[in-house]
């Protein structure tokens, strides 16, 4: 019937509109997918740069640890040298000083006995 044809024509037009809308949505979805893929690639590049920086920092850390170890060894050697120098100075002073005569002892007991 004519009414059925009109109804089917209307439904067909609705379906066409829905297909067009779906196609537009697919285009938008593809655009978003491409943008997302681009962002993922950028993030992967950034991650690679960060990983390189981490490796560089780890290498610098190892170098600094070696420097600290060398400085600690140098400080220990300097301390030993200082102690040896002090001991040597003490020996020189002792050897250079004339033998001092023994100081007379102050014997208060003898004085007290003499006074009694």
TrEMBL record:
Residues 5-84 form a coiled coil. Keywords: Coiled coil. Residues 97-116 are annotated as: Disordered. This is Inclusion membrane protein A. It comes from Chlamydia pecorum.
């Amino acid at each position: 019937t004519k009414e059925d044809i009109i109804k089917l024509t209307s439904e067909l037009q609705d379906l066409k509109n829905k297909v067009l809308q779906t196609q537009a949505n697919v285009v938008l979805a593809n655009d978003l997918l491409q943008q997302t893929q681009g962002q993922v690639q950028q993030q992967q590049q950034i991650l690679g740069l960060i990983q390189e920086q981490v490796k560089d920092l780890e290498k610098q850390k190892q170098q600094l640890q070696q420097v600290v170890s060398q400085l600690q060894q140098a400080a220990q050697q300097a301390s030993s040298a200082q102690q040896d120098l002090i001991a040597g100075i003490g020996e020189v002073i002792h050897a250079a000083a004339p033998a001092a005569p023994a100081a007379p002892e102050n014997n208060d007991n003898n004085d007290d006995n003499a006074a009694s």
